[in-house]
Amino acid sequence: MHFHKYEKYWLTFGVGSLIVFLLITGIMAFHNGSHPPSAKNTINHEKVEQIAPFDKPGVHKVSGKDWDYEVVVLASAFFYNPPVLEVPLGAKVKFIATSKDVVHGFEIAKTNVNMMLEPGYISEFVTTVNKKGEFLIVCNEYCGVGHAQMHSILKVVEPK
Ligand code: CUA
């Protein structure tokens, strides 16, 4: 079979870009650990404030688990409960969040934490906080008139 010179260039380019894209996706998924947030568990969103762990939103130290802290967040139009989170540097943290009303986002700026919070579903993400400072948490799903004001803060502090 005979290929024209330009056809060979295009074939090489096409196969080459396919390999590059697959490599990028592979590195993102397996090395950087970015994948779609799991929302396997369901919850009655109308009674969510009476159901554990959302009856006690906040930062909780846990033991006997694969992570050190559980950060429980309840989102509603247009704020997060609690409004400020504080965890020690180096801790392995599991974020557990859901929404009381409509779809909200939970993105911690400058990290790879980014979840969609849907009423009736529990979103979870485990990560190790290895950068000190204050990180803005923003809602990145349009949820109504107060959407642009919907935010909270994650403080990563020196362990006591
Ligand atoms: Cu909540 Cu946008």
UniProtKB/TrEMBL annotation:
It is found in: Cell envelope. One of its GO terms (cellular component) is cell envelope. Keywords: Copper, Membrane, Metal-binding, Oxidoreductase, Transmembrane, Transmembrane helix. InterPro entries: CcO_II-like_C (IPR002429), Copper_CuA (IPR001505), Cupredoxin (IPR008972), NosZ/Cyto_c_oxidase_sub2 (IPR051403). The chain crosses the membrane at residues 9-30. The keyword Methyltransferase does not apply. The keyword Oxidoreductase applies. It catalyses: 4 Fe(II)-[cytochrome c] + O2 + 8 H(+)(in) = 4 Fe(III)-[cytochrome c] + 2 H2O + 4 H(+)(out). One of its GO terms (molecular function) is cytochrome-c oxidase activity. Residues 55-160 form the Cytochrome oxidase subunit II copper A binding domain. Its main location: other. It comes from the Bacteria. Subunits I and II form the functional core of the enzyme complex. Electrons originating in cytochrome c are transferred via heme a and Cu(A) to the binuclear center formed by heme a3 and Cu(B). This is Cytochrome aa3 subunit 2.
